[in-house]
Amino acid sequence: MKDFTLLDTRKSKSNRKWEAGVIKTYLLLGLFFISFTLSSQVQPGFIDGNISSGAELDWDDVWNENIPANSVSSWILFDDINNPDAPEPNLFDQTFTQGSKDHQFISQWTNTTAGPNAKTNIQQAGAFLYQGVIYFFGNLFADNGDANIAFWFLQDDVGVSGNKFSGEHIRGDLFIVAAFTNGGKEGNISVYEWRGDGSGDEPNSNNNLQTLISSTNPNPILGSYVGAQLNQNNITAPWSYTSKSGSNVMVPNTFFEGFLDLKGLLTETDFELDPGTSACFSSFMVNTRNSASVDAALNDFVAGGFNVQPEVELEDKSICEGSGYEIIPSIKGGLLKQGETDFRYEWYYSEDLNTIISTDPTYTVDEDADTYNFTLYVYGDAIDGLGECKESAEVEIEIISVPDIVTQGLDACEIGETGKA
């Protein structure tokens, strides 16, 4: 199984002054460097072709878990064979099997342990969401001169299952493709949305993809809200990284980063997503490919969680009657609605999902002896208030009757005991 390193979502160590003013910068778009004014929500550190930007928020802050509140991060994801946190050494690097392509359903993708070649080998990748802007990066083992790389933001939990993949596309998944030619000096970037029913406008995708922003027919207005950059100088990696030369230095054209300002697109332009799209992403994947075409052959990949949709876990428990038990959910990721300090909660008995029994963050069980199943729905915000991102989890609580000490003898719930493992 391909090992993806994904650290738990944590509170930031400090909320530095991430608010930026209006910034003028240069962005690689289409076939030209163009100058334009970025809105305040775009963090310039993520679009300057390096990992550390001093006082500006950048990937070294993601690595050090020093990120602002109400942001979502994949953290830094490591590919199999160079994962420093793997419980045991990985001997193989899984890649896409020949014939796997981005425009296919995920159930059609396959993988192999054959390993990538040096120029398509992804070492690390990451995604970060803050103030309605999605940032993403991937770094390579060696300089290819020309680079073709793509990023998926997926609503389902997508991962490796044997030589196939688990999860599936959901209408509204976002697909970003970038191609750099002429030694990385010229770049093209396109954004697509997954339709999956033949209603898309991209013929090379079996019409599974709908074009949102095109590199071949760029819109100068929409183009200000998406960008990509390759490093033009050496970068010393703050995380475990080994280049083709054996050093921890990323040489030019091996570090790619970009952004998509969804909030700006949806509030400042006539840009529209497919009706019903909520951008409640759960997974992130970066892959290398043979060209910028949507039907290009795929090479290496790195993937992990990207929980815009909150991930909720509940733990089954057995307790003694009369002792009571507070069910406390574990929640990773998710965005809070503007002005709110917590998610919205709905607790139900699982056999009756029409009657809410509590709206508190936790639920205390104090029923008679029996086995009970509870379902919790947690509601967070979608990107820029597109709707709500909800996730549910179910838990089983067994309440054991305290035995009659005279007629039944002692059982699992002894007098003075509070429960059993």
Structure described in brief:
By secondary structure, this protein is mostly beta strands. Helix content is 3%, strand content 37%. The strands form nine sheets. Strands 3, 4, 7, 8, 15 and 18 form a six-stranded antiparallel beta sheet that branches. The chain has a six-stranded antiparallel beta sheet with strand order 14-13-12-9-19-20, with no helix packed on it.
The value of Rg in angstroms is 24 Å
Task: Give the fraction of residues assigned to helices.
Answer: under 10%
Number of strands: 29
- Given the C-alpha coordinates, what overall shape results? globular
Mean pLDDT: 84
Helix-and-strand structural type: mainly beta
What proportion strand?
35-45%
Profile the largest sheet: 6 strands, antiparallel
Helical stretch count? 2
* N-to-C CA distance: 31 Å
Low-confidence stretches: 1-37, 405-410, 415-421
